[in-house]
């Protein structure tokens, strides 16, 4: 399954097509990179050269004396198609095309890329690129990229980047921070090799402990999500993506679509899979550093040691803002720290050791050790500011105390250093980084990273506790729903009637209110009297999606008022939308409880998603909503409910009873089953779903169908 990966990252032989002995050419740089570290067979391919850098050169790849695993192509774009033919003829397993001038430059380049891809597919060659920076296997000594030099061995972070130049800038930043990498891949235009295939390979790679993905686009979104979920079960994955801003909301007939941003499906997929979503390339590196070098924090409680009271307060504020806690230390821990400090210092948390330089090593080291021993603290953050960062003996004390607590005593808590000093502290900073202790410049960067890792750890623990079983739909549900949709399709309708939507949900186990379609005032009065309570009247028309916008909904109507209101609704709707075909007015029972909204939509890349939120201001103003790709387990659907900020309203506040969360989850499940089973449902809007102590009821609904 991963034969391409072995051929790309652990090739027994490499052919460099476009190799050159002329300084300054790309073929020269690549040749130098390969011969400096790669231990396998290297075949320079150049019809105008006999020998390059001590290696015999060959006119074509077919002339190489042994089979080729990896072909690296560095030619003008117009020569790459023929080079791919040669690779196919020679039986090369993988072709890495660094050359640009393909789909990224327009129609002519796209045609050239397609021709090259078709040759590769027919010849059984896997294509990486084109228009890419290349790849590294640092632990092998392989640099098949445009980057100069070879990173040190012994790394456990792998980086996949679509943007070659920016990806290499990220790589350069990481090297400055003394991070070591296992594998790096820039895959450019992604003509052949897809994101999910790369994920599958690196998930199985024992040398990769933490995986970073820096993406511009995602190909085969559903397959990407499934591979990401499998990989995230085995190792931490940090994802950053450009192009996530909302370019604008599309006009849509459903409320759900109007609430959904352009990047919603991608963000949902990453979080649902269990990966970490970083806001930038810099944050991705910061989080990867913490995950690769330090234990996973057992909680969100932070202990801070500082030699600057103001900086300690700033870090405390930022920790609280990003969801961490900075608790006051227990009297016992304070009593342990107090003898280390001058009388005017504070042992409470932050521990302020004051600028008493001579005692920094004892105060920092002793305070860190006390926090490791304390049950009050999950994360230790020493602030090293100016003198405390520049004093070698103090940095040694910090380093040695952390290593002793973690390695000798086996206390699984992370330490992140908040570094507040200029460039003059590079040597002391390196002492910490080389020991595997992350260093972050300034309080905000430190707090953001600690919060991201704590959230990841918490989500991982919560995910492990979730039920993973997926229930099966009720018997006959698919057949009932198919008949309803077939009826609408036969009439060439793209908007379902409200009662049709409710029948679809009822087939999958959701509860709907009692209702009857009436075509006359007398019939409506009879139905209202049978219901025995004030009722709801709604216009029914295949041409009207938002009934309330045209005056087509009246709530709380007593039976004796129904005939008058019936006529009023007809007159109002006909005046506002005279061309609408009106089938009648639905008379429904009133359902009382907490309003919620359940929606669904279909993303072009990731497929169907289900949405949940509380009604009213929570959705309209606060956009307090959660999403999941479907199908989803019962545990994931339950987690959806807990994610919204208004969740306490469902559990009972200010004397109100808790709602039936089981029934609400079942209604979410019904919507998820429906979306998963029927691709022709492009948008679903159940608004409101009324939930109370005795169940959940789909009070209204609309759905948009695609005719394709």
Keywords:
Rossmann fold; 25 helices; 708 residues; seven-stranded mixed beta sheet
- Name the structural class: alpha/beta
Report the major sheet.
7 strands, mixed
Kindly provide the radius of gyration, computed on alpha-carbon positions and rounded to a whole number of angstroms. Answer: 31 Å
How are the strands of the largest sheet arranged? 9-8-11-10-12-13-14
In percent terms, what proportion of residues is strand? 15-25%
Would you identify the regions where 5 or more consecutive residues have pLDDT less than 50?
Answer: 246-257
- The name of the CATH superfamily of the largest domain reads Succinyl-CoA synthetase domains
CATH architecture assignment of the largest domain: 3-Layer(aba) Sandwich
Helix proportion of residues, in percent? 40-55%
Quickly count the domains. 5
N-to-C CA distance: 34 Å
CATH topology of the largest domain: Rossmann fold
3D shape: flat
Q: What is the strand tally?
A: 29
Mean pLDDT: 92
**Would you state the CATH class of the largest domain?**
Alpha Beta
Number of helices: 25
